[in-house]
Automatic annotation (TrEMBL):
<dbReference type="InterPro" id="IPR010920">
    <property type="entry name" value="LSM_dom_sf"/>
</dbReference>
<feature type="domain" description="Mechanosensitive ion channel MscS">
    <location>
        <begin position="205"/>
        <end position="271"/>
    </location>
</feature>
<feature type="transmembrane region" description="Helical">
    <location>
        <begin position="188"/>
        <end position="216"/>
    </location>
</feature>
<dbReference type="InterPro" id="IPR045275">
    <property type="entry name" value="MscS_archaea/bacteria_type"/>
</dbReference>
<dbReference type="Pfam" id="PF00924">
    <property type="entry name" value="MS_channel_2nd"/>
</dbReference>
<dbReference type="GO" id="GO:0008381">
    <property type="term" value="F:mechanosensitive monoatomic ion channel activity"/>
</dbReference>
<protein>
    <submittedName>
        <fullName>Mechanosensitive ion channel family protein</fullName>
    </submittedName>
</protein>
<dbReference type="InterPro" id="IPR006685">
    <property type="entry name" value="MscS_channel_2nd"/>
</dbReference>
<keyword id="KW-1133">Transmembrane helix</keyword>
<dbReference type="Pfam" id="PF21082">
    <property type="entry name" value="MS_channel_3rd"/>
</dbReference>
<feature type="domain" description="Mechanosensitive ion channel MscS C-terminal">
    <location>
        <begin position="280"/>
        <end position="362"/>
    </location>
</feature>
<dbReference type="InterPro" id="IPR011066">
    <property type="entry name" value="MscS_channel_C_sf"/>
</dbReference>
<keyword id="KW-0812">Transmembrane</keyword>
<keyword id="KW-1003">Cell membrane</keyword>
<comment type="similarity">
    <text>Belongs to the MscS (TC 1.A.23) family.</text>
</comment>
<feature type="transmembrane region" description="Helical">
    <location>
        <begin position="38"/>
        <end position="60"/>
    </location>
</feature>
<keyword id="KW-0472">Membrane</keyword>
Length: 393
């Protein structure tokens, strides 16, 4: 057992107040001091149980009415975290003090019981701290993250909560081992050497874990986003794990990409800042057609599309004077790329129908082959001249 805990129990038994109380009760009742010690111990435990019941009533009935007057819910979450550990701690601490009042108890037994109670208190404290941090994270998520006031989302906070929990309980275990009288310094040194060896052997895994933390904190994407990587992968994010990110492609295939690669890649996120997407549609018309009229028709067709935004409104313009055609470009914004992905298809279908009705010609390149006999130079040989031109509808 830890020497500090043992000496504390001895100090309790040597208290002058306790000795005086023991003597007075023994004189009044005629009971032996050993019996009086047991009675005092029982009284201390009973008092601690009563105090625990009072604290429980205060936390469950009175405190909620007081904290309900505040403007935030953090105090409510702290009360929930405190409920349980507070009562158990009072009873365990009372039992620990009661053990110290029994002088006739063998030292080894007293020390062992005291060590067990101290270890119980250590894990109660770890449980409370873990609950408290969880309460703060829950409050933060409800007050800020859900309202969009911060970039951190549930994935980040859950990851952080688990990490802190592991740290807290690791410290609690080491402290408990120390209370049993076991030297933890060599253990910590061994863990350090083992940690270095593991880190060297698992560089790729650790790189992916740190990549996951970077992704969750910086949040270039989140679950549900549609992204495209510089390496060409394209799809919806279905999971962000410690080792990898999973994408579901449009043909319903799952791509697993290491987080270390994701953190290094250039990412095009189609879901941020919203689901709006600008479509670029290119159409060529003949030089004999009215370009201004074609532009008006394109803007009219795009503006009539379901899912196309009115602000900014569709815009068409001449983008190039090509070799065979006047090339027009139409820019149209869709409200939701998941629902309105077919806007370009619908626009071009209407263009194919509307342009001929309005006398606007859509040219396409062909070649004409002219054949003649060169009687002077090579009689009977056919000379081919390939002349590019446009056949207009």
């Amino acid at each position: 057992m830890n020497a500090t805990s043992s000496s504390f129990l001895r100090e309790i038994s040597d208290l002058e107040v306790l000795k005086s109380l023991e003597s007075d009760i023994s004189n009044m009742t005629g009971l032996s001091t050993s019996v009086v010690d047991i009675l005092i111990a029982v009284a201390v435990i009973t008092l601690s149980v009563a105090m625990a019941m009072v604290v429980k009533y205060f936390i469950a009935e009175i405190a909620p009415k007081l904290v309900s007057r505040t403007n935030n819910t953090l105090d409510d979450e702290i009360l929930k975290a405190l409920n349980g550990p507070a009562q158990v701690s009072i009873i365990v601490l009372g039992t620990y003090i009661a053990i110290g009042t029994i002088k006739e108890l063998p030292v080894s037994l007293s020390d062992n019981i005291g060590a067990i109670l101290i270890i119980v208190l250590i894990f109660i404290a770890a449980y409370f701290i873990s609950n408290l941090i969880n309460a703060i994270i829950k409050w933060y998520r409800n007050e800020f993250s859900s309202k969009g006031d911060t970039k951190l989302d549930n994935s980040v906070m859950q990851f952080f909560n688990r990490f802190i929990g592991v740290v807290i309980y690791s410290i609690a275990i080491l402290t408990a081992i120390s209370q049993l009288g076991i030297e933890i310094t060599p253990m910590l040194a061994s863990l350090g050497v083992a940690g270095i060896a593991v880190a060297l052997a698992a560089q790729e895994l650790l790189s992916n874990i740190f990549g996951a933390f970077a992704i969750l904190s910086d949040r270039p994407y989140k679950v549900g986003d549609r992204i495209e990587l510089s390496s060409g992968e394209y799809g919806d994010v279905v999971d962000i794990g410690l080792r990898s990110t999973r994408l579901r492609t449009l043909d319903n295939k799952i791509i697993v990409i290491p987080n270390s690669d994701m953190s290094k890649s250039r990412i095009n996120n189609y879901s941020e800042p919203d689901y709006k997407l600008r479509y670029t549609i290119r159409v060529g018309i003949s030089y004999n057609s009215d370009a201004e009229k074609a532009i008006r028709i394109l803007e009219e067709i795009a503006g009539s599309m379901d899912g196309a935004m009115k602000d900014p409104k569709p815009k068409a313009y001449i983008s190039e004077l090509g070799e065979y055609s006047v090339n027009l470009t139409l820019l149209v914004w869709g409200k939701n790329f998941r629902e309105n992905w077919d806007i370009p298809d619908r626009v071009m279908r209407k263009v194919l129908k509307r342009f001929p009705e309005e006398g606007i010609e859509i040219p396409f390149p062909t070649t004409s082959v002219l054949m003649k006999k060169d009687k002077e130079r090579m009689p009977g040989v056919v000379v081919e001249a390939i002349i590019p031109n446009m056949i207009e509808k």
